[in-house]
Every structure is written in structure tokens, then in C-alpha cells.
Amino acid sequence: MTQSTIESKNKKETNNGKVPAKETILSPRFYTTDFEAMENMDLSINEEELEAICEEFRKDYNRHHFVRNSEFEGAAEKLDPETRELFVDFLEGSCTSEFSGFLLYKELSKRIKVKNPLLAECFAHMARDEARHAGFLNKSMSDFGLQLDLGFLTASKDYTYFPPRSIFYATYLSEKIGYWRYIAIYRHLEKNPESKIFPLFNYFENWCQDENRHGDFFDALMKAQPRTVKSLSQKITIGGSTFTHPLFDYFHRFRYFLNNLPITSKLWSRFFLLAVFATMYARDLGIKKDFYSSLGLDARDYDQYVINKTNETSARVFPVVLDVYHDSFYGRLDKIVENNKVLSHIANSDGNKVSKTLMKLPKYLSNGYQLLRLYLLKPLDSKDFQPSIR
Ligand SMILES: [Fe+2]
Ligand SMILES: [Fe+2]
What we know:
Strand content: 5-15%
Largest sheet: 2 strands, parallel
Shape: globular
Number of helices: 13
Structural class: mainly alpha
Helix content: 55-70%
Bound molecules: fe (ii) ion
């Protein structure tokens, strides 16, 4: 197949059709964690449920699902240039985040295999699923004469370190939000087949079940009381240098004591829910808005539906969830979207760096203020929270 380059305003660097992903503050991130703490995790409290989930993974329900059919032939050529560009951006972003999941799960399965075989097996099954998802998306990119250079991505991306507990929060949320995002698009296109711009969407129903199972795994993992996560050691790493002293052991003990206070879990739950929801909302109503329109979806309605559902689902495992029903909740997120529009307008305008920064400052401050008010909004206690559908 002839490799063609997509004409785009922000033209990508191409290398035999291989594109490195564009890096923005809202791009999917790659994560790494404390592997030693992970392998020493005591799962005995919830081992039965984890074993049951692992058994589900072994069945590999989607083994034969990701097989391309004849519908893909010529489908790429049917898209007009504008939709094509939006869709390729969607493919690129989705492929990168699926691949980021693969890398983290694969590394975890490898590193904890000896001491924590059950957990390692679960991670290996999830890595298998994510590799399949990323591969399937990348194959669709090749229909457009492009391919994401996954080897280059692995080597060149910065890895963000998260301690195990934060990895649980962040990955649980990204799996569950992934489930709601895919199923919402699938159901919408089922009702509006004329908006199905590419056959890839036919695969979303079974695909999102993989994400749902991955989310359930982290649900069970968190219920196994991650407070047993211990990385007590006499070592401490500051700015890349490692120091050893018996006193550091007490520092780690104190840190874990603080981490295990119920208030800490509540504060982290609010933080992660807000971070994930605000990031998605800002991106979908900003740069991705036109993509949703091309599917006949209103980005605002779609995101609010996905956020409400993910918030409801999270009440199963988080001690508190956000009050997304409060009058101010989406109003403040909309204000952030508005501010971001002005910010990108300033960034693209003429003028020197100093004056641009001064013009941007009030909008950054306003964004910070909105986020702070959202964070301080009284949360809903998960025990009292009775979602209609879970
Ligand atoms: Fe996935
Ligand atoms: Fe997943």
C-alpha cells in the first residue's frame, strides 16, 4: 500500500508513515511504579475474588474478536479530509493510551512474577488485552497510510512515577472511564448508524468489556487492602540519588501511617476523580469537540454522561465520590474550557513572550481557582450514594 501523508495544519513528522505522538499536557502518559512494593503486597484478604477475576481473564473472551473484516476495505477513502484528520487524531490518542496500559501491565507482570504470581498473571492477561487494543487501533491507522511508532514511543516517552496506591486509583479510573466512553459511543452509533464513520466502532461493545474487567480487577485489588503495601526500607531516593540510613525506616513507617488514615483515602479519591474528569472534559470540549460532532455527538452531553456514570461506578470502591449533580460542578468545568480557548487564542496570536505570559496569567489563575473550588466541593459519601444504575 502506498504510504500517504495526511495534510494537516499541524503536520506530523513522518518517517515512512510512522508518526511519533504529539506531546501536549493532555496527552496520555506513561507510568512506572514501585515494583518492590508491588511484589511484596499481601493480597490474602481478597485472594478469592482476585483468583476469580484471574479465571475470567484466562477464558480470554475476546480471543477471536479483534479480527478485521471486509468492511474495512476502502473505508478510509470514504472520509472527507476534515473528518479524516479528526479521526486519525482520535486513533493516535487512543492507541497511545492503550499502549501505555500495555507497557505498565507488562512491566509489572515481569517484575513481580517470582514473589507475587497471581498478581503477575492478572497483569499479564491485561497486558495481552491492551496490546490487542493498541494493535487493532494501529492497524486502522495504517488504513490511512500512517502507523504509530510504538518502539520509538517506548524509548522516548517520559515515564511518570506513581506510588502503587496512586497507580490503583489512576488505572482503576482510566479503565472504568474507558468502559463508559466506549459503550456510550457504541450505543449512540447503534441508534444512529449513519454517523458510523469507520467500522472500528463495531468492535467497541466487546472491547469495552475488556476495560470493564480490568477495572474490576483494580476494584478487587484495592479491596485487598492496599494498606498492606509496604516498602519499608532503610533507603531513600532524593533527586535520583539513593541514601541509606536506619532512620529512613521510621520515615517510611510514618509515611505509610499517614497514607492509611481514612481521611487520606478520601482526599486522594477526590483528587483523582477531579483530575481525571477535568482533564477529559477540557480535552473533549476543547481540541476534540469536532471529532464528537463528526460522530453526531454533542461533546458536552457525552462527557457529562460518561463522568456521571464513572462517578457512580467509583462509589463501589472509593470512600467518597464527587457531587457532579451540584449546580456549580459543570459550570466550573465549562469556565475552564472557556479559559482554555482564550489561552490557546493568546498562544497563537502575535506578540512577545512576556506580554503573552501576562495576558495568560489571569486565565491560569482562574483555572486554578475553579479547580480548587471543585476540589473543595462537599463530596458524596459512597455509602449514602445510591446510583440508579451501577
Ligand atoms: Fe484497552
Ligand atoms: Fe484496559
